[in-house]
Automatic annotation (TrEMBL):
Residues 157-285 form the BioF2-like acetyltransferase domain. PANTHER family: LIPID II:GLYCINE GLYCYLTRANSFERASE. It comes from the Bacteria. The keyword Transmembrane does not apply. This is Acetyltransferase (GNAT) domain-containing protein. InterPro entries: Acyl_CoA_acyltransferase, BioF2-like_GNAT_dom, PG_Glycine_Bridge_Synth. Keywords: Transferase. Signal peptide: none annotated. GO terms for molecular function: transferase activity. It comes from Pricia antarctica. It holds the Pfam family Acetyltransf_6.
Length: 352
């Protein structure tokens, strides 16, 4: 049986029944992350001794009576709790039928979700429901290893960088408003420098609301120069259950040659190990590609986890019609046309 949950308390109660979840699955984070026109919704499925939670953001498709669904910024997908069975061998046939019926009845045309690389049974829950692609990996630091063995996985250049950085930088925890403001500006500076999509320019409220959350713990580490006290970089880490997520960071451009973010990641690794966390997820490259961002993160660890994208076309006839209408006689730019999902939301880029 499928139940739709949009109430905060009911959402939180169902997630407690599931028992294991990252902050990306919380109602609070969905409410904070949603963009204009998006509505948080939790699909709560019950089958005898099994519970499945699938958090989504529902969007209207402009000019139609249809909708589609996507996931929050980060990692989501379905979570499962079973009494006697391993979720990785769960028979999803009834779940598949009920989910498809619900989506069709509610005029949901397509669904896209970034899967959680540390929940290894998700592929089984979604077996034969759309398709899952794995375009790349995320980087994990195994916090169950002794600190010296963790550090052995660093490349030699990274070790040199961190040793030098510890001699010239101090680390402080950001708690004051002025510190948070400065971190936000450094983050924005980073986004402008890499010509990031407007999606990544989160409102200031987003940062402050993360900091005060009672649903998960956020640690903002800042780096300053020992000689002047100037703040030069910062990183935001989010802790839930047994996992630490490297969420956002920013650095002043003139300090990139001796990047303080490397030192902050190393410091968080030490703190999280002492607190008995299991995973320290650094994430991957943009779109989980093996780009320069991925190489930066991979310099810390050789422990790579496949990252999955779940794409599900629920109503192919309507989907194809929407794609045709979106083109409107024009050809989409060649790059990315086959990868962008849903294709009818692909926007043409015009030359400046």
């Amino acid at each position: 049986m499928i139940e739709i949950i949009t109430d905060r308390d009911e959402w939180n109660s169902f997630m407690k029944l599931i028992g294991h979840f990252d902050f990306y699955f919380t109602y609070y984070y969905h409410l904070l992350s949603k963009k204009e026109g998006e509505r948080p919704m939790l699909i709560a499925y019950r089958e005898i001794d099994t519970l499945i939670a699938l958090p989504l953001l529902i969007r209207d498709i402009e000019g139609t009576s249809y909708k589609d669904a996507t996931s929050v910024y980060g990692y989501a997908g379905p979570l499962c709790k079973t009494e006697d069975k391993d979720p990785s061998v769960f028979d999803n046939s009834r779940f598949k039928a009920e989910l498809q019926r619900f989506l069709i009845d509610n005029k949901v045309v397509s669904l896209f979700t970034r899967l959680h690389p540390y929940v290894d049974y998700q592929a089984n829950l979604l077996k034969n429901i759309g398709c899952i692609s794995s375009p790349g990996c995320v980087v994990n630091i195994d916090l169950t290893l002794p600190l010296d063995l963790q550090r052995q996985q660093y490349n030699s250049r990274l070790k040199t960088y961190i040793n030098k950085a510890r001699r010239v930088y101090d680390i402080v925890e950001g708690k004051k408003e002025a510190q948070i403001e400065e971190f936000i500006e450094m983050y924005y500076e980073n986004m402008r420098r890499v010509d990031a999509d407007p999606y990544y320019f989160f409102e200031k409220r987003y940062f402050y609301q993360l900091m005060i959350s009672s649903n998960f713990k956020v640690k903002l580490l800042l780096c300053s120069r020992k000689d002047t006290g100037e703040l030069i970089g910062g990183a935001m880490f989010i802790k839930t259950g047994n996992i630490v997520q490297y969420h956002l960071s920013g650095c002043k451009e003139e300090y990139l040659p001796l990047n303080p973010i490397k030192l902050l990641i190393d410091e968080m690794r030490v703190i999280a190990t002492a607190k008995n966390f299991t995973y320290f997820n650094l994430g991957g490259g943009l779109g989980v590609r093996e780009d320069s961002l991925f190489q930066f993160k991979a310099s810390f660890s050789k422990d790579l986890k496949p990252a999955g994208f779940w794409k599900y076309i629920v109503n192919k006839e309507v989907y194809d019609d929407l794609v045709a209408q979106s083109k409107n006689g024009e050809e989409h730019e060649e790059q990315g046309e086959t990868d962008f999902f849903p294709a009818y939301r692909h926007k043409l880029k015009t030359e400046a």
